[in-house]
Amino acid sequence: MTTEPLAPAGIAPAEGWASTLRWAAADAAVMVGRGIRHLTRDPETLLLSVILPINLMLLFVYVFGGAIDTEGDYVDYVVPGIILLCAGYGAAATAVGVAQDTTAGVIDRFRSLPISAGAVLTGHVVASVARNAVSTALVVTVALATGFRPNATAAEWCATAAVLLLFVLAMTWLSVALGLLAGSPQAASGFTFFVLFLPYLSSAFVPTGTMPAPLRAVADHQPVTPVIETLRGLLMGTPIGTGGWLALAWFGPVLAGSYLAAKFLFGRRAFTGRAG
């Protein structure tokens, strides 16, 4: 009489692909729920990611807007950049959350559970996307109250949402990788500073043609400017040119590279789980 050897503790026996995918989806749903609950228990992060961009928008519109010539209402010019800035702040908060999980021993606690390794990161990413959706909706609502008047069609609004989703996913997965790389939440916050600085050195607030030549060269050829010009073109009908393709060329690789980097960095922690 023979008996089958038992799988080591914490590791599920071999399963079919359908069963593995089902368990991975269930694990991801649990982690997404965890991330959403963290959002409801930490309203300060959500408020910060909303209040700061709104304050910047009101400052530029009512204080500096009258002195900046954009060949139209300044609020229509500045809102696409503010939306992107809001998304950047929301994504950057993910780096801090991942670093907190890593340094507080939460990840080590997950190691002892038979769950999918990727579910932990998926929970952070989906929660970040949800946070960005809420904050972006609030920013657009305030912008409409201050005179923002987009003339986009339904298809252009859908294209705007797709561009924003690409940007948010790319920035969120980059933040996840930085959070895994950082040694503390404070270090993770510092790593994201450079990313948050990029919108200020772009066409978000002033036309790049008003900048000195060296600064204009940087602003015209950095990754955030084509995204802003694409959003501005979709919402306000201004020329997009090659902005859409450049946005995809920049942030498509950023998304793919950040996702692979996050998986690699997380895998180095020797996570053992059902699908890990």
Brief rundown of the structure:
The protein is mostly helical. 72% of the residues lie in helices and 0% in strands.
Could you explain the architecture of this structure?
This protein has 276 residues and is mostly helical. The chain is built from eleven helices and no strands. α2 (43-64) packs parallel to α5 (117-145), α3 (74-103) crosses α10 and α6 (154-181) packs antiparallel against α10.
Secondary-structure-derived class:
mainly alpha
Order of helices and strands: HHHHHHHHHHH
Overall, the morphology is: elongated
Largest sheet: none
Task: From the alpha carbons, calculate the radius of gyration and give it in angstroms.
Answer: 21 Å
- Distance separating the two termini: 33 Å
Q: Treating each run of at least 4 consecutive H or I residues as one helix, how many helices?
A: 11
Number of strands: 0
Which whole number gives the mean pLDDT?
A: 80
Instruction: Give the low-confidence spans.
Output: 1-14, 270-276
How much of the residues is beta strand, in percent?
Answer: under 5%
Helical residues, percent: over 70%
